[in-house]
Amino acid sequence: MSEEALLLALSSVMRPTTLAAVYAMVSRPTARSLLRAYLFTGLAFSLAVGVAVVVVLHGYTTAALSTFWRALLDIALGAAACGYAIGVGTGRRSGRDRKPSRTTAWIHRRLDTLTPTRAAVIGLVTHLPGLVYLAALNAISVAAARPVGAVAQVVTYNVIWYSVAIAALVVSVLRPAASRDLVEKADAVVRRQGRSIVVTLFGLIGVYLIGKGISILRGW
Question: What percentage of the chain exceeds 90 in pLDDT?
Fold first, then answer.
């Protein structure tokens, strides 16, 4: 798997909305059915998007054109990531006094009355393709020699991306109480250090992508 895509996948594991959703599910008596619905729908959607994107990116007929546009995409995604990090760091994108976004509020309302159908929808909403996923797909399409290899990397990325929910499902089958405890501890850490984590991750990702894109363009 592309080292860049692997690092991006690892950076996506501990997301506040994902942890909140998984913790709410493992706290219910029907945890297994909720987690299965969450995983099936979310994975099906993100895999479909990922496979479609890498196939399209591999469809360029001119290698030079492909390199040029991928470099521009890296720079655009990097700039967006840096902008988001700056916004979070300065309090413009998050903060205790700031109202939650409509999406976050929507998710929290449905976490109060979870059903398998709602868990499935939450699985989709919490894994909509964002900056990190698009950057990873770009890296995968560049690194993979064949479409089959690119698809395999997309699958690997998504397994890592959903690893918290997958682990929670496995542990909920073997030790339900331990599953709740582990997710609760992870959620508590992210809640305390959430802003620092977001600023650091998105800042580093943004600087890396911009630098990579500029380096490619200079040698193009």
Answer: 14
